[in-house]
Amino acid sequence: MQIVDRKDEQKRLRRVLQESSSSVFVAIYGRRRIGKSTLVKLVLNDEDVYFMADKSEQPVQRELLAMALSDSFPDFDAVKYPSWDALFTSLNHRANRRFTLCLDEFPFLVSQSPELPSVLQRLIDSNTLKFNIIICGSSQQMMEKAILDSSEPLYGRATSIIKLLPLRLPYIQEALGLTDVQAIEEYAVWGGVPRYWILRETESSLFSALEYHLLNVNGTLYDEPNLLFLDDMTQSTQAQSLLSVIGNGCNRLSEIAARMEKKATDLSRPLKKLIDLGYLYKEIPFGEKEENSKKSLYKIADPFMSFYFAYVVPNRSLIGMGRGQAVLRKLEASFSEYVSFWWEHFCMQAVSGQELFGRVWGMASRWWGNGFDEMAKKSTPIEIDVVAESDDKSLLIGECKWTEGEYAERLFNELRQKANLLPLAKKRHLEFVLFLKSPILDSNFSLPSDCHLFYPKDVINIMF
Questions:
Q1: 4, 174 in Cβ contact below 8 A?
Q2: Which residues make Cβ contacts (< 8 Å) with residue 93, sequence separation at least 6?
């Protein structure tokens, strides 16, 4: 698969490595399979040294690193180094030019050698360092602690810190050669993790890739969440249980606690940890503050995790019996409904921070609650898929549909009726947007000037 995006990260990394007048220390981290190693290899040249650590004990790790260094520094591995301090001191002495040393999976090294960050700190602080150092890691919490915790040796030493996030939706279309609709559907499954896209590319279709890589006990991604959680947790059982419960419809804290037979207070810390790692997010209605809202909902933040806990976990028994085809049939029957949730999510992302209709819109989110019908003098429960506010206090009100055969006139009238019930919409200028999967059936209907149609192509284009 061709490499897409990561242009800013490459530019930033090249700049800090090539333009700095002295040696630099760089930290790169992000979840497993996000593309850290690929990013580094794109930037390193033939004179640099890349070392992938494993879970071997420290004497073995030092021997392996010395062997990697010997390609650039002949006979560097001819000596047995009794400590990390001895190895790096010798390397700094041998270095007759500035090069870059990348220590990938740095957390593995630290787990066997807790003193290593202090060794690097002394080397960096000595002002005699002759080479650049890059550390990479998939354990997000360990990496953040190592470089962002003021009590840690490497705190404040990094010239640059790069946290790699998932690739954005538009790039999956470029990488896999998809139509606009396919790009939405595929991203709703794989999310923005490059490795998953590479695996998807090996199969002829989305469903055949799912059957081979996920709906089979021997599939490459069958046990993926467990591997991801183990990077940041001593055991993954509770994390898997929380995402399973949330992924299957329990979104309020009280519901989650009841399903897991735990006190709500006991779940606050693990839920926060999963939010910090990017696997969950907390949704509140537009316009409410998190600390004051009593309507908070926990949702899975990552498309791949969402798909996994919606379809793989509930069907483990069938998959274990080799009945992946049966699971696939169930999946096909509800797939549009599954994608519709992420379509709504993508539409909110597309609107947020964008200049549309002559205004710049803030962060978009969903609104739900009781509207008030002035004519009937009664409250009416309503839900609006997308709401955003502009600098001049105008509101964008959006409806998202991932279905075929919609009529714009009906949808617009329903959306305007909801807006009339929305308390925060009173005396505001409104812009209405219909986010639709396919062309409307009533193409002769003349949309009002304040109503706009967005299709997958439009959403993808404004996300670039």
A1: yes
A2: none
Question: Would the pTM of this model clear 0.85, i.e. be above it?
Answer: yes
Give the model's pLDDT for residue 20: 87
Q: How many CA atoms lie within 13 A of 261 on its CB side?
A: 0
Q: Which residues pair with 280 in a beta bridge?
A: 300
Q: Which are the contacts of 435, defined by CB distance < 8 A and separation ≥ 6?
A: 343, 344, 347, 385, 386, 398, 399, 400, 401, 454, 455, 459
At 81-127, the pLDDT tens digits run: 999 999 999 999 999 899 999 999 999 999 999 999 999 999 999 98
Place of tokens 């908070």: 296
Tell me the residue type at 79. V
> How many Cβ atoms are within 10 Å of 176's Cβ, its own excluded?
20
Q: How far apart are CA 290 and CA 284, in angstroms?
A: 7
Cα(203)–Cα(222) distance, integer angstroms: 16
Distance CA 380, CA 182 (A): 37
Cross-strand bridge partners of residue 137:
29
**If DSSP codes are grouped into helix, strand and coil, which group holds residue 298?**
strand
Contact (CB, 8 A) for 280 and 244 = no
In the three-class reduction of DSSP (H, G, I as helix; E, B as strand; rest coil), residue 456 is classed as: helix
Rounded CA separation 293/283 (Å) = 10
The SS3 of residue 19 is helix
Q: Beta partners for 372?
A: 379
pLDDT digits (tens, 9 = 90+) for 225-239: 999 998 888 767 899
Q: Which pair of structure tokens corresponds to residue 323?
A: 């009945």
Span 343-365, pLDDT tens digits: 999 999 999 999 999 999 999 99
Give the per-residue pLDDT at 42.
Answer: 93
Q: Are 145 and 273 spatial neighbours (Cβ–Cβ below 8 Å)?
A: no
Residue at 463: amino acid letter: M
User: Which amino acid is located at 430 in the chain?
Assistant: L
Determine phi and psi for 398, rounding to 5 degrees: -125, 150
Confidence category of residue 372, pLDDT binned at 50, 70, 90: confident
Closest CA to 383 of 425, 336, 419: 419
How far is residue 372 CA from its own chain's centroid? Answer: 37
**Terminal-to-terminal C-alpha distance of the chain:** 20
| Helix (H), strand (E) at residue 356 | strand 355-356
pLDDT over 80 (residue 3): no
Residues 6+ apart with CB under 8 A from 331: 207, 210, 311
Between CA 463 and CA 171 the distance in angstroms is 10
Instruction: State how far the Cα of 278 lies from the Cα of 322, in Å rounded to an integer.
Output: 32
Q: At residue 186, does pLDDT exceed 70?
A: yes
Q: Rg of the chain over CA atoms, in angstroms?
A: 26
Confidence class for position 294, pLDDT limits 50, 70, 90: confident
